[in-house]
Amino acid sequence: MILHVLGSCSGTEPMPGRHHTSVSLETGGKLYFLDAGENCSYTSYLLGIDQLRTDSIFISHTHMDHTGGLPELLWNLRKLCTLSPENEERLRGRTIRVFLPDLDVFDGVCKMLRGSEGNYETVFTLEPHLVEDGELLSSGLSVSAFHNYHLGTPAQGEPWRSFSFVLRAEGRQILYSGDFRDFSELLPHLGGSDLVLLETGHHRAFELCRELLHSGVPFGRVLFFHHGVEILRDFEGELALAREVLGDRVSFAGDGMRIEL
Ligand SMILES: [Zn+2]
C-alpha cells in the first residue's frame, strides 16, 4: 500500500509549496482519495499517479480545504478519457464512488461539472454515498467511518457532518483523523494502526504525541498533516518538540510525500 500526500495544509491562505488537504492511497491496483483539497488532481497527475485507477473518494467533511479540489478531480477524470481511446476504454462502464457527509454538496459539484464542457457526459458513472458511522467499503480497501465533534453535535434528527476513517488493506491499518476536536474521539479506533494521520490545524503535534504515548494503545508511525499556520511558522521547532516525545516515529507531512506501508 502506498500513501501519497497531495496536500498538507489546513484551510490557510495560500502557502508556498503547500496545498489544502488531500491524501491518496494505492492498493490492489486501485486508487483512493481521502479528502480532495485544492489541486489534488493536479498534484497527483504530476506525481505520475494513475488517476484512471480511481475507485472511491472519501470526504471527511465538506469544508473547502477538504473539497475545493473535488470538482476538478472529477472533471480531470473526464478530461483523461478525451486524451486517448485507451484511456476511455479503461473508464468505460466503471463506477466511481464519492462518499460525503452532505450530499447537497455532491449535487452542487455535479451542477458545476454539468456547466463545464460537454454537460459532463462521461463513459463512467459517479455514485454518491452518504458517510455514516460504520463500514463504507469492504472490497479491496476496507474503510470504516466514525463521527467526530469537529463540527459539533448535530441538532435532533440531523446527521453527523464530520468523520474520521479507519482503513485496512494488505494487512495494514491506517487511522485518518480528518479534522477533530479532542483526542478522546479517536482513541477507541486507534489500536493496531500501523500509521496514524493526525491533523495539526487545531492541535499542537507534541501534545497529541503525549496523548498517544499515554494512551497505552499500540500504534506504529505517526504522520501529522493538515497543518495550521502555527506549525508552519516554526515547522522544524514543532517537529523537534514532537520527536522529543515519540522520536523518529513522527513525521510532518509535506506535499508530494510518499509513504510505503
Ligand atoms: Zn480542515
Automatic annotation (TrEMBL):
It comes from Neglectibacter timonensis. Transmembrane segments: none annotated. Signal peptide: none annotated. The keyword Hydrolase applies. SMART domains: Lactamase_B (SM00849). InterPro entries: Metallo-B-lactamas, RibonucZ/Hydroxyglut_hydro. It holds the Pfam family Lactamase_B_2. Keywords: Endonuclease, Hydrolase, Nuclease. This is MBL fold metallo-hydrolase. Residues 19-227 form the Metallo-beta-lactamase domain.
